[in-house]
Design a protein that fits this description.
Length: 265
């Protein structure tokens, strides 16, 4: 029994990366990374938040400590493994989701699954650089598996979906391409119908870059009965990598959660 519990705990820790544990934290922020990335960038956010907020970053199969695992075949498979790993983390805690690009869709479906199966919902949902899942403006993803490495690089530059410093580093790009192709396939095959009624009830905040192709965020209003607001920050699809923008987002999340929690009492 003890071995089984330990194995389960290790499995959960592989899926959720928490670099800075805060046992007395009031809030849990669960971050969902963009296509082709791992968990480390968002996991490091935990150092800069105050002790009231503990950050967990989702780690997908095929990268970091899960590098020996096969890539997920679709987005729902990803959600099905995240939810059980997440339950012990968010049980009896106020929690929020932050997703960037592909991560926004994984976060959305995870929130939907938690609500449908466990009557749990994030206190707030923060969306970054992502159209609503049913939006007609969602970008068309090419069949990366049929393209050469140079063609993949060209598409990534045009799309703006990968930080430029990674695209320019040939060694790093070669290592990232299998992950990028797997994630692009997941995004390409993800289809979501326009909801006939609101699926969530909490507020949604949308962040996006001034130079990004993703600017129409109105569709998120169909997703929730709560309030939807947006913030445009200077930059492209990866505007959040700029320190000033990153600090703005962190400060906004902190204030937003504090206000949301007070509203519950």
């Amino acid at each position: 029994m003890e071995t089984r519990v330990h194995t389960k705990r290790t499995r959960n820790e592989n899926i959720l990366n928490c670099l800075y544990q805060k046992p007395n934290a009031v809030f849990k922020l669960i971050c969902f990374p963009w296509a082709g990335s791992g968990s480390v960038y968002f996991a490091k956010w935990g150092q800069s938040f105050n002790d009231l907020l503990e950050v967990h970053s989702v780690r997908l199969a095929g990268r970091e400590t899960r590098s020996q695992e096969l890539f997920a075949s679709d987005i729902y498979q990803i959600v099905d493994e995240i939810v059980p790993a997440l339950l012990p983390v968010v049980q009896d805690k106020a929690f929020a989701f932050f997703g960037h690009s592909l991560g926004s869709y994984i976060a959305f479906l995870t929130a939907l699954s938690l609500k449908e199966k466990y009557k749990m919902e994030p206190l707030h949902f923060f969306v970054s650089s992502a159209y609503a899942p049913h939006s007609k403006f969602r970008l068309q993803i090419p069949e990366l598996n049929k393209l050469s490495e140079e063609q993949v690089r060209h598409h990534l530059l045009n799309f703006g979906g990968t930080p430029k410093h990674l695209i320019d580093d040939q060694d790093v790009l070669s290592q990232c391409i299998p992950i990028l192709k797997a994630d692009a396939a997941i995004l390409k095959n993800f289809v979501f119908d326009t909801p006939s009624e609101a699926l969530l009830s909490q507020d949604i905040t949308c962040f996006f870059g001034s130079e990004d192709m993703v600017k129409d965020i109105k569709g998120w209003e169909d997703i929730t009965s709560g309030k939807v607001d947006s913030h445009m920050l200077p930059g492209d699809h990866f505007y959040l990598l700029e320190p000033e923008n990153e600090n703005f987002i962190k400060n906004y999340i902190t204030k937003c959660l504090e206000v949301s929690l007070l509203a519950c009492f």
